[in-house]
Specification:
36% of the residues lie in helices and 32% in strands. It has one domain: 2-Layer Sandwich (Double Stranded RNA Binding Domain). It has three helices and five strands. It is flat and about 55 Å long. Strands 2-1-3-4-5 form a five-stranded mixed beta sheet, with helices on one face. It is an alpha/beta fold. The model has no long low-confidence stretch (mean pLDDT 87).
Length: 168
């Protein structure tokens, strides 16, 4: 007697789940860092500084030290710039599309001795969005959301670079 369609579907899903579990698949979690303490030059009250501190704390291996002299390494944010450029205009000369960009430049140095562990590195992310004069408030909120998303992406990229650095 043939199995009902629903039962065969459940069996197929269970087999896929077992296969994924058997191969060691798991979501990427926080990555351990190769140093015990870090000083972050960005203000703890800025969005970037707060996000970096949260991610370092989640690593489980590293603490954020506010006193640079007590930290093993120092993450220096050399630049953090946001730009907005017009991409296209309507026939009436009004803005139709903007391109948002955020650029972060950073380096990692050993606090005693000043040795560069990660040379100055620049990360850039861009987003485009359409603009409508009749929806200014909504578009301002969309722009703020896009900037937050870009900054979160840049923080993840910085954390991947910090995690990839290995003790010499």
């Amino acid at each position: 007697m043939p199995m009902p369609h629903r039962a065969s579907r459940l069996i197929a899903i269970a087999l896929i789940a077992l296969t994924l579990a058997a191969c060691g698949f798991h979501l990427r979690g926080p990555q351990p860092l190769a140093f015990a303490s870090v000083n972050i030059s960005a203000s703890p009250y800025s969005e970037l500084g707060a996000a970096l501190r949260r991610q370092v704390a989640l690593s489980g291996t590293t603490t954020v030290e506010e006193d640079a002299a007590k930290a093993e390494v120092s993450l220096q944010i050399l630049a953090n710039e946001r730009t907005r450029e017009i991409l296209s205009l309507t026939g009436a000369g009004k803005v139709r599309e903007y391109e948002l960009a955020q650029r972060i430049r950073f380096r990692l140095i050993r606090t005693n001795g000043g040795e560069e562990l990660i040379i100055p590195t620049e990360l850039l992310t861009r987003r485009e969005y359409t603009f409508n004069d009749e929806e200014v408030l909504g578009k301002e909120q969309e722009e703020a959301l896009l900037y937050r998303d870009m900054e979160a992406d840049l923080v993840r990229q910085i954390m991947r670079r910090l995690a990839s650095w290995q003790r010499q």
